[in-house]
Each structure stands twice: as C-alpha cells, then as structure tokens.
Amino acid sequence: MRTRLFIVGLLLTMSANSQILYHDASAFPLLGKATDATLTRYERLPDSLEHISRKPLWDLGRNSAGLALRFRSNSTCIAAKWEVRNNMSMNHMTPTGIKGLDLYCLQDGKWVFAGSGRPQGKTNEATMVKNMVPEEREYLLYLSLYDGVTSLAIGVDSLSMIEQPAVDLPVRKKPVVFYGTSILQGGCASRPGMAHTNILERWLNRECINLGFSGNALLDLEIAEVLASVDASMFILDFLPNATVEQMKERAEKFYSIVRAKHPDTPILFVEDPIFPHSRFDKKVAQEVKHKNETIAAIFQSLKKQGDKNIYFLSSKDIIGHDGEATVDGVHFTDLGFMRYAEILYPLIKKHIR
Amino acid sequence: MRTRLFIVGLLLTMSANSQILYHDASAFPLLGKATDATLTRYERLPDSLEHISRKPLWDLGRNSAGLALRFRSNSTCIAAKWEVRNNMSMNHMTPTGIKGLDLYCLQDGKWVFAGSGRPQGKTNEATMVKNMVPEEREYLLYLSLYDGVTSLAIGVDSLSMIEQPAVDLPVRKKPVVFYGTSILQGGCASRPGMAHTNILERWLNRECINLGFSGNALLDLEIAEVLASVDASMFILDFLPNATVEQMKERAEKFYSIVRAKHPDTPILFVEDPIFPHSRFDKKVAQEVKHKNETIAAIFQSLKKQGDKNIYFLSSKDIIGHDGEATVDGVHFTDLGFMRYAEILYPLIKKHIR
C-alpha cells in the first residue's frame, strides 16, 4: 500500500512537471459519418449536397453531432485544442453540449466517462482529464453537437505515446443510422456524450450515425439517399417532431422506399412523436402531437399491409418517463430524457442488429 | 367529443386574441428563505451579514437558488418579466438554469412541470405555458439558481384572475434546510426546478430552504446561525465538496453545535463527498475525496459517541448511480444526477420529518 501511494505520488509529480504536446486529430479514426465525401473532415453531409439541400439543412449538416474520434494513449492527461465554425449559443443548452468535447475511456469492455472539454468560444483549449496513472488506454472523444468542429488536436504528455486504437470498438461494421430532429441532434444534452445516439453507441459498442437536423427533419428526399448509402444494421426514423402532417402524407412513404429499395431486409424503426411534457397543459400542442401520431400510425399500417416484414413502430408512450421532468423546455431532452430514451431504444436495437 | 373539441378550439381562439397583463410578484408568497430580513426580496442571507460574511459568500447569498413563488390563476397562459442582478454565464450550465424561471402546476396533489422561462439576458420576458383550458390552477414558480432575481412580474390573460394560493402546499411549517456547495445551489441543473432541493420540495410537498453557496461551503459559522434561526424539520449538511480537511477539523463540530444548541432533537444529516465520476481516472481527486470522507466519518463518530441520537450519515456510494453519467464535468450534477440524488434523499428525509 505504501509503495503504491509512493508510486502514485511520483507519477503525479511527474505529470505536474510534464509538458503537453498536441497532435493533429486527422491521423485518427473518426466514427459517425455516413460518408467520407464531405467538404471538411468534421461534418456530416456529402459535399454533393452543398448546392442541392435547403440552406438550413446543409448548414446543420456541418455540425459535428455524433462524430467521435478514437485513439490510444498512455498519457497521464488528455487535453484538446479545437475550433468551431459558428461559436453558437442557445439559452436552453450548455456551451459544453453545444460546442464542447466529451471524453470516454474503455474499461473492461465498457466506455466510461473520463472528462468533458468545456469551451471558451470559437477557439478552445481544455484539459479533459489529468493526474492519471500512465497506463495505455483506449479513448473515444465525442465532438460538439450544435456547432461544427473545424480543427482538432489532442494533447498528451510530451513523453507519452498517442497512437491508433488497438481494438475496433465501437464496432464500425454495419452501423446504426438515425434520422431526425433537434432532439436527435442532441438538444439539449449537457455534454456531447449524452445525446442518445452516443449513449447507444457506447452501450451497443456499435458505431451510430446521427443524421439529426434541428428543426429540419422535413423528409427531404436527398437525405433518404444519404441514409440508403450506408450499409446499416438498422435505420431509426425519428422525424415526427419536425415534419408536418402534410409533409408526412406527401413524402414519408417515398422517403422510406428510397431507403428500403437499397436495403430490402434491414430493420427500419418508425418512432412516434414524444408526448411532450408541456402538452399536458398546452392543448394546441397536444392536438398537433395526436394528429401527427395518427398520421404516422396510418402510414406504418399501410406499409405493413404492403407486406414489409422488417418495419417496426415505437410508441412514444414511455420514452421519456411519465413524471414530466425529462426536458428543459417541454420539448428538448435533458440528460435525464436522453438516458430514458436510450434505455427504451437499447433492447429494441440490440434485438434487431446483426 | 365533438363538443369538447369545439370548446377547446374556441378557447384557443380566445387566448390567441387576449392580451397579457403583468402583476408584480411581491404580492404573492415566496418559499425558500431562511429569513425575511433580507436587503431585497429575492435573496437568501440576512441583511445583518452584509458586512460580516466573506464577500464571495455574501454575493452568492444574493442568488435566488431555491426560492419559489406561489400563486393561483385561471389564465390560459402564464408569462413572466424578470430582471437578474449579474447576467451570469457559465459554460457548463444552461442559461435557463442559471438565470431562467421554471413553472409547476398542482394536479391531483402533485406538482407537474408546466414550462420553463428561457432568459434573454439581464432583462427577460417569456411565456412559460400557453393554450391552456382556462381552469383555476395552483402554480409554483422557481427562480434562477445562479443569478439573483431583482424584479419579477407574472403575466396572465388580461381578463383572467391571479390571486393568493388556495392551499398551503408545499407545506411551509417546519421546512427542510440544506447547507452546501455549488452542487447544492443547483449546479448544473438544466432549469431551476431540477435542483434536488426543488425536486424534494415537490415530492415531500414541504418547503425546502437552499443554502448552497458555490465554492463557498467553508463552514462559516455565521451561516450555522442562519440555519439555526429556522424552525426546521431536518437539517442536511452537504459541505464536503468545498470544505478542506483542515476546515472540517477546525469548524465542523462547532458549526454543528451552533445548530444543535437551538434544535436539540431535530434530525441532522451529514452527507459524504460524492464519488465524482472523473475520480476513476484522476488519482489526485480520488485521494482528496477519500481523505475528506475519512475525516467526516471520524467527526460523525465522535459526535455520536458524545451521545447525540438524532444525527445521521449518508454514504455517497450510491447517490448518483454507478455509470459515471450523472455529471456535466465530473463534478457538477446534471438533471440525471439531481434526480438520482433526490431519489436517495427522499426516503431518508420523509422518514425523519414531522
């Protein structure tokens, strides 16, 4: 025990005196992209859509929601320098969630939170974890949810190593692909790792791709093509909070069939509109939710009748609990809401993916 | 059903056309203060401490953490205008939690989230809920956690009523009094209602008093006098994340005995330092937490040996779960952390309060 304390003391002294050396992150694997054909590395939509997609949709595609860097290091601390595109702010989400970073470490096969990168503004520098015993570890670093990372460097002790991951976890073959709204994009997780697609990526130990576009999950058909381009294990269609009843009637089947055409047997899950907590009181919202959910149920039943066996439907009844406490504003999920949603989705996805 | 829809439609049309009229909140009961002898209404420390307490402690006492307004209205919408003292920002907490408002409504004896007031800056205006059926309801409005509300007006439909509560809920007799740190003050709840003292106030339906002072729960003895001035049902002493081992050795027994002298039989609960998620990796923090928890355990045992029967000790082992996901930065609780902490504290407090 005394020896162990002495060693820990020695290591802490060493780390206090060591310098941090930054390494460009472009050398390390990046999870969470539907395609590599993007304008810059840390964005989500193919460059071919730059002049095709509606501008707000295209701009949101440049946010780095769901993207995650993998590396391995024996450093006693992990730091980062990063720059963001818009220096975005919102009054119902933390800057750490909007434009920060979030570090996880693999321990006994599970991803464990190690520290978050709290941002200062457009250019940022943060030590996410320090005072560690210098053992080799596998890291997973989640990027900003509501802004776009334009450059990223990882800092480690100057005398330590940083290198390629030694294991392919989360597994990159056959990712799970999500399409949806601001909630899907991670609004309003306190830090990037708490968006439910990122929670599920860790729990499933399978790459997840977040195609969430705040306010803009309007069933744009070119996004269906992006989904269809991925050799996915499952597709989750979670667009109801944005798409209107008219848009659904006009495009939901078409959107679906673009994906289905390329993936005849892949499970596709439709998700109902959440019963937003404020709709207990706001009768207008309650009516809208009811109308949307009736519409998606009818569309689902119609597809089912056409003989599709690999489509599923998630009722929103239980997805964020029944206490009304899972959102920041009646709509956008907090970490509590995302945790509950992940707990509902996990067994459903686990059961269907191969 | 058709009639009901017609009525709802009519009411929505009415509310869309009605004007909002603002009423100064000073006419309505305010919960969460240890004393009414404060410089201005929406702050927590007695004015007598203005030139006695350390300046950072005094300044934090002017934050409105745990304060909540009670009123009754039949309006179809509830809005607010409010101004804050510092226009505070932090990168790991939402502006809504820092300087926003949070509205709950009593339904079947339970407090249910109705909507949050998202801030714009120093002066703010927000509609927290709208499109309601115009029934008389009891409301509880939580004030900003990390800033001080300096003025507050409640907006209702111009032709509706706003008046004194019809029921004394949460019960104001014998409140529960909490002393502690930034975490206790509500860092980093997404909205004011999710600080654990506010969650517990709703679950217990008993007034709770939040004497949390970010970074400044250093066992200042005049704060023990503030606690002792309250005819409390229980005291929760939750200062470990701030107080050093030296401060605890020097002042914890003295702090305790000031409270105990005036309340010989009131339950007093000591809370251990949380096992912060980042301390899995940060060995320096892990050692500090261990040392502090050993110190408080020794102090508790010593008090116990002196014959006190009404003191209790909460191990931090389970308070925020074991998945490492309950904080935004390894230290400060998110809504997920506060919910878990409230779930642990609730039965303990419920059992002891009269």
TrEMBL record, chains A, B:
Show the Pfam families listed in the entry: GxDLY, Lipase_GDSL_3
Q: Which SUPFAM superfamilies match?
A: SGNH hydrolase (SSF52266)
Which GO molecular-function terms appear in the entry?
A: hydrolase activity, acting on ester bonds
Q: Which residues form the SGNH hydrolase-type esterase domain?
A: 173-350
Q: Identify this protein by name.
A: SGNH hydrolase-type esterase domain-containing protein
Domain named SGNH hydrolase-type esterase N-terminal: residues = 22-161
Q: Which InterPro entries does the UniProt entry name for this protein?
A: GxDLY, SGNH_hydro, SGNH_hydro_sf
Look up the coiled coil feature and give its residue ranges. Answer: none
Which superkingdom does the taxonomy of this entry point to? Bacteria
